[in-house]
Amino acid sequence: MNVIQQFVVAALVVVGSFFLLVGTVGLIRFPDVYNRMHASSKAATLGASSILLAGFAYYGPQGAGLTSLVGIVFLFLTAPTGAHLISRSAQKMGVPFFGQDADWPEEESGSD
Predict the structure, then answer these.
(1) What secondary structure letter does DSSP report for 19?
(2) Which first-to-last residue range defines the signal peptide (predicted)?
(3) Residues 52 and 72 sit within 8 Å (Cβ to Cβ)
(4) Is the CB of residue 41 less than 8 Å from the CB of residue 83?
């Protein structure tokens, strides 16, 4: 493995890890199911795809590298579909959007 290939693999892993971290923070910080679904599906799709692409760059176009490409295709087909189904189910159940009959929980004022 040459230096350029190592740099590309490392960059893709770092970018993928960053997207996964941002998605995790969004999942914790956002107030309702719709915002959380957006953060988790977009970031997870980009993050996992970048890491799988790093696997392809590392292993090459046969064997495990080909499996990485198949994983990317599968991820791009299933992750948005699953996010759409969960959001649609939440809407049909009547889960309100943030700002519509929903509010941030009040913080208790303690003795700090």
Answers:
(1) H
(2) none
(3) yes
(4) yes
Tokens of 54: 């790093």
Q: Which of 63, 39, 37, 68 is nearest to 52 (CA)?
A: 68
Q: In whole angstroms, how far apart are CA 40 and each of 8, 13, 73, 86?
A: 25, 18, 18, 12
**Residue 17, class by beta-carbon neighbours within 10 Å (0-12 exposed, 13-18 middle, 19+ buried)?**
middle
The mean predicted confidence, pLDDT, of the chain is 87
Evaluate if residue 66 carries a pLDDT over 60: yes
pLDDT band at 32; cut points 50, 70, 90: confident
What the block records as the tokens of 70 is 């198949």
Which tens digit of pLDDT belongs to each residue from 81-108? 998 998 899 888 888 877 765 555 566 6
Per-residue DSSP letters for 40-101? HHHHHHHHHHHHHHHHHHHH-SSTHHHHHHHHHHHHHHHHHHHHHHHHHHHHHHTPPPTTSS
Residues near 30 by beta carbon (within 8 Å), at least 6 away in sequence = 36, 38, 39
